[in-house]
Amino acid sequence: MMKNIFIYPNLRKDSARDILQPVCDQLRRDGVRLMLPKQMRVVPPIIEDADYMKTEDAVQFADMAVVLGGDGTMLRLAREAAQNQLPLLGINVGHVGFMTELEPAELPEMEKLFTGEFSLDSRMMLHVAVQRGGRIVYENDALNDIVIAKGTAFRVVRVGISADNEEVTRFNGDGVIAATPTGSTAYGLSAGGPVIEPSAENIAVIPICAHALAAKSFVFAPERSVSITAACEGGSEVFISADGGQGFAVRPDDRVIITRSDLQMRLIRLKGNSFYRILQQKL
Fold it and tell me: Are 109 and 166 in a shared domain?
């Protein structure tokens, strides 16, 4: 039984605050502890019987987290949740909400959390490390994707891709995306990449606006080590970002190493919808 539940709303969305009280009402019962982010202590509505604490502390104590938002909100919590093996249940108050499970009208479905009528959907993550002069200067993990892109709109990025130290391809363009199956329905899909079902656990590498007819996406086995170099014409900066987070400047001599992460994200499923049914509903 889920006894310690962390509720993580997107405070920038009025719709997330609007459903906070109904969500708490659905989850409230004897023996269940509700936790909310500390900064919500002064943000209406005030949940009197909830414990307010720092997110980094809550993810360690909780048995699960209920995320009120869209895919972006899920991604913001994903790394900390995966580090603590904390499963997430998403309630969509965003736009697409591909990773979320419920819509606001489906809150009664949460009763299944207490009857055991749910499953856990494990999702692979990617690890990225930037090597510079023989040392690691940046590391991160991503549930969706790792994007390497130009910082200036009017320059071209020269991209080189290798797998297990063997060159795969080179092209000029706006950058490149390395995506998990989860991320294959996000930016990678917009860039013309393949849709990969989550159980396949592959790594997709997708050019962004490549200036070559022959530049294609590649799908690698999860055990591959993918190495990427990227340099912008005219000395302009190239940046790397994991799951849309803060960018890190990549130099021309840097090597970006992307591998399967040791972390896994677990999503709570209550309705039993298949990946293909979710595709039809959301996209």
Answer: no
